[in-house]
Amino acid sequence: MTFLQRFRQSLETLYTLPPEGRYVVAFSGGVDSHVLLFACQRLGLPVRAVHVHHGLQAEADDWVVHCRAVCTELAVALTVLNVDATAGAGQSPEEAARDARYAAIADDLCAGECLLTAQHRDDQAETLLLQLFRGGSSAGMAAMPGCRPFGRGVHLRPLLDFSRHEIEAFAAESRLEWIEDPSNLDTRFDRNFLRQQVMPLLRQRWPRLAAQLANVAALQADNRQVLDNMAAIDLADSVITPPVLQLPLFHDILSVLAISRLQQLSHARRMNLLRYWIRLNLKTSPSRKLLQEIESALIHVRSDAKPQLQFNGYAFRRYRDGLYLLQPAITAQDEASLVGMSFSWRPGVQKQLSLPQAGIMLQAVTTEAGGLRPELMQEQLTLRFRQGGERFRPQGRAHSQQLKKLLQEAGIPPWERNRIPLLYCGDTLIGVAGLWAGNDAVVANGEPGWRVRMQPL
Q1: Which of 19, 36, 314, 377 has the fewest CB atoms within 10 Å, i.e. is most exposed?
Q2: Could you report the per-residue pLDDT of 143-176, keeping only the tens digit for each?
Q3: Is beta strand 22-26 parallel, antiparallel or unpaired with respect to 308-311?
Q4: Model pTM?
Q5: CA 371, CA 441: separation in Å to the nearest integer?
Q6: What pLDDT, on a 0 to 100 scale, did the predictor assign at position 35?
Q7: pLDDT digits (tens, 9 = 90+) for 303-344
Q8: Partners of 148 in the beta sheet?
Q9: What are the residues facing 323 on neighbouring strands?
């Protein structure tokens, strides 16, 4: 089977392109991506190229010129994307460049398009070893997948079954001309050190090393899929929907797991579920240390404990039988500022009221039957937030109760309670937004009224 025949087979095995779809080759100008683009063009596939200008090398502008010339010769459209690849805190230059590159390409990708990148078998072997040296997880040991969701489409690596030698031989046979990135020789970077100094030594002892490591990665990918399948089953049995999730105010709650169910699982199975749950919601893999902290600080503690853990700006908290995963909604400073804050609102004049400090917008909505009395819409109402000690009599209740007790009864987690707007007419609490109307402020049965609708900002 020829190189091009193997390449076509690899593409078709990985993914079926939609009828109106197109391949997008990430084209650096190096030998691997040149072969990838050339193979697509030779096979008559619908393809365009995208080149990312990182601005990190003095030759970067020359590489753009080279890529334009190659694409003109191949009659392939080229898009050049300029990015800022400055490394952030705790980020290596390699990571910063990769993240900026993929983010730019994801934004450029159209629906139905399929990104192709040129990683090959030797790259796969290096990735596996790097993951091993860094103490990577089983997902990391699976190295690079051949196909994964990406942007508005998918990301394929159709050269993973090809060696570097095969690619370079095909490039020479096809008389391709490519550029060499001098940074690839800089052994201060881990991958370059591995490629230039470690792999040659290992290959002297084990000539088939790259193929064998790629096979290990493939086996790990299969194992990872089995673990993910098991985690999906456990997730379906463990995820719960407390009533609080039905309220727009609490849009910061991403997902909730039943702690009683987690406690029934074995340690390994529980870790597998938590890892899958976090990856599914946050699109990043948690460290083993974080999983152990979640287990010790949130799962194996008293049900009335109120610890929380932070991870990448997100939070894990426990309330009753729920393990909550929370996304940032408002800052702690904004939440603290709500105490003692008040807003004037005349719903009959101003239908909507934005409360950025609480991360919500309120809207007065008329109802055909039930709700607050219509004349209250013309009053100068006041919105406040909990300060403690409030009493309230919801519609249908015989007596007033402490608001704290009512919120507990409704299953509202403690950290969410201070963000709930309280609606006052004068000094009388007439409604708790999104939850209750006051018994003395509602219409008679069957009469039209109005209510407060909440939406996240």
Answers
A1: 19
A2: 888 999 998 899 999 999 999 999 999 999 999 9
A3: unpaired
A4: 0.77
A5: 8
A6: 97
A7: 666 778 989 889 999 999 999 999 876 556 566 667 778 889
A8: 155
A9: 257, 318
Task: Please give the distance of CA 84 from its chain centroid, rounded to a whole number.
Answer: 21
Model confidence band, residue 280 (pLDDT cutoffs 50, 70, 90): very high
User: 157 near 117, Cβ under 8 Å?
Assistant: yes
Strands 147-150 and 308-311: unpaired
* 14: Cβ contacts below 8 Å, ≥ 6 apart: 146, 147, 156, 157, 158
pLDDT at residue 88, as a whole number: 73
Report the SS3 class of residue 456: strand
What pLDDT is stored for residue 331 in this prediction? 56
Q: Cα–Cα distance between 206 and 186 in angstroms, integer?
A: 25
Can you tell me the distance from the alpha carbon of 377 to that of 385, in angstroms, rounded to the nearest whole number?
20
**Helix, strand counts (H, E) of the chain:** 16, 20
- DSSP string for residues in 101-122: HHHHHHHHPPTTEEEE----HH
Q: How far is CA 424 from CA 238, 342, 377, in A?
A: 40, 10, 12
Which residue has tokens 């529980």? 270
Q: What's the number of CA atoms in the CB half-sphere (13 Å) around residue 18?
A: 11
pLDDT per residue as tens digits for the range 402-435: 999 999 998 888 888 888 899 999 999 999 988 8
How would you classify the pairing of strands 253-258 and 436-437? unpaired
Strand-pairing partners, residue 422, are: 384, 432
Question: Domains along the chain?
Answer: 3-224 (3.40.50.620), 239-326 (1.20.59.20), 334-456 (no CATH)
Contacts of 410 (CB under 8 A, 6+ apart): 243, 244, 435
The DSSP output letter for 237 is H
Query: Would you call 311 helix, strand, or coil by DSSP?
Result: strand
Backbone angles phi, psi at 79, to 5 degrees: -115, 130
Q: Which helix (H) or strand (E) holds 167?
A: helix 164-173
> pLDDT tens-digit profile of 188-198?
888 899 999 99
**What pLDDT is recorded for position 335?**
67
Backbone angles phi, psi at 363, to 5 degrees: -135, 130
DSSP class of 23: E
Phi-psi region of 32 (alpha: psi -120 to 50; beta: other; left: phi over 0): alpha
317 C-beta neighbours (distance < 10 Å), count: 20
Which residue do the tokens 């391709």 mark? 176
